[in-house]
Write a structure and sequence with these properties.
Strand order of the largest sheet: 2-3-1-4
CATH architecture of the largest domain: 2-Layer Sandwich
CATH topology of the largest domain: Alpha-Beta Plaits
Largest sheet: 4 strands, antiparallel
Oligomer: single chain
CATH superfamily of the largest domain: ACT domain
Helix content: 25-40%
Distance between the termini: 36 Å
Structural class: alpha+beta
Low-confidence stretches: none
């Protein structure tokens, strides 16, 4: 019987880390169904939804001890769902944010969305340098879902106000 796990790994970045980790999973009969992998600074982070034979979990945990000895932090958690299913009746939106970087942008946006029952499905953020001045610019893309019956115009207007106060431009578009 197959089970689903969330497999996460963080540690120093090096050439071949993805091949090494996916090789361990494959040798245990695991299949990566969904993943996010990224280099953050000089570190590497991987977050994966893996389908694996239940009888291979103990072996995979032993393999994770080997990875820990190599300097990586590994977490393995069983999960019930094979993949995220759309929430019935919820409306999907893409939110993009751009502006001068400063502390608290993500927090203010996330707090506003949570207060209005809007769930964040995924979020990517980065800092880029302005072409001429080199000023740090914040950029974010998020996929969110608004609950049924929620006044879309109302939460979007309020979110625009959050952007104005944070001095960033926020755009919302239906997906």
């Amino acid at each position: 019987m197959r089970t689903h796990i969330i497999f996460s790994l963080t540690g120093r970045d090096r050439v071949g880390i993805v091949e090494m980790v996916t090789g361990l999973l494959l040798r245990r009969g695991g299949n990566v169904e969904t993943s996010r992998m990224v280099r953050l600074g000089r570190e590497f982070a991987a977050l994966m939804l893996v389908a694996i034979p239940a009888e291979q979990l103990d072996g995979l945990r032993a393999d994770s001890e080997w990875l820990a000895a190599q300097g990586y932090q590994v977490s393995i958690s069983q999960t019930e769902g094979a993949y995220a299913r759309p929430l019935p009746g919820w409306l999907p939106y893409r939110i993009t944010v751009e502006g001068a970087d400063h502390e608290g942008i993500i927090h203010e946006i996330a707090r506003y969305l949570a207060q209005h029952g809007v769930t964040i499905e995924s979020m990517d953020t980065e800092i880029i340098q302005a072409p001429v001045s080199g000023t740090p610019l914040f950029a974010m893309t998020a996929l969110v879902a608004a609950p049924p019956g929620q006044s879309t115009a109302e939460w979007q207007v309020g979110l625009a106000e959050v952007g104005r106060l944070a001095n960033v431009e926020i755009r919302v578009s239906a997906v």
